[in-house]
Automatic annotation (TrEMBL):
A GO term, aspect molecular function: arginine deiminase activity
One of the GO biological process terms: L-arginine deiminase pathway
Record-given protein name: Arginine deiminase
Top-level lineage group: Bacteria
Amino acid sequence: MDVHLNCWNETDELKCVVVCGPSEIDVPDQQTADDVQWEKPVSQDKARENHQVMVSVMEQEGVKVIDYSDYLSSKDNMIHKQLINRVFVRDLGCVFGNKLLPGEAGTSMRRPEYVMSHLLFNKWFDSSTFPIEANDSVQALEYGDVLVLNKDAVFINTGLRTSMTSIQKMKEEIFNAGFSEIGVIDLPRRGDTMHLDMNGNVVGKNLFLAKSYMRFFPVQMVDEHGEHYEMMEQFLNRHGFKVIWTADVKPDVRDTVANLNFLNLNPETLLISSKVNKKIFSHHSVLKKKKLIEVDVTELEKGGGGIRCMTLPFERQP
């Protein structure tokens, strides 16, 4: 695979991203949706239409889009195309600097897609770039819980799908990739707080948009010298980010996954869901200047994730 892995933050210009088209199996009714922990029933025909539009928009913006399922063997694809969560590729791995680290599924239902994608990535990259064995002793680490803030710091949630034990197992790999500090927050274990990127997101080089309840949570700082605690805003301020709390935006803007689960295409441009309440970007002098590219991913969002969940950046360039 002719790709130069390079991600040191969430906002540099996106050059290459990995996706996966939706499953072939509908989620036919609300009872089934509840049983598989989705929000609503889903027509995969509609989901595929949504997904293709999202991919086309990224390509129009100059992004190389790789659907990794196109590279799976026919044997692997027999089961893979039936995995309803496969569209949420963000959790499978994360590029830290120039290294791709493998995740580990926090639920057994998702384990097959992790195994198959990792074996594929292992063919694409050498062991120094993608150490496939790095997650061998990891119990649960889904990268929707990870935000790469800058060349120094990484922000991780340990919650419903990621364990503190797993972060401790993976921390040396993250430090070896060039980062010096990991901030760990422990958010409530609920469906609407499943991953960090459902609760906060980097929006531009120096801004962090977050649900207001997060101001009350301490962050455990982990570096090569030890551990200590800071409050979340203190941690982010120290790394150059001003925090914008959603309750301070507009009192009538309800916190939703769509409002926060957007993708930075470059420092000036966001790829957002058509369900975003744009008031969230209208009150701040910097946010007002953002170019917002809107796509309808309504059918895909019924699975409980958003645009960021459905995209795995491989390369960003300043």
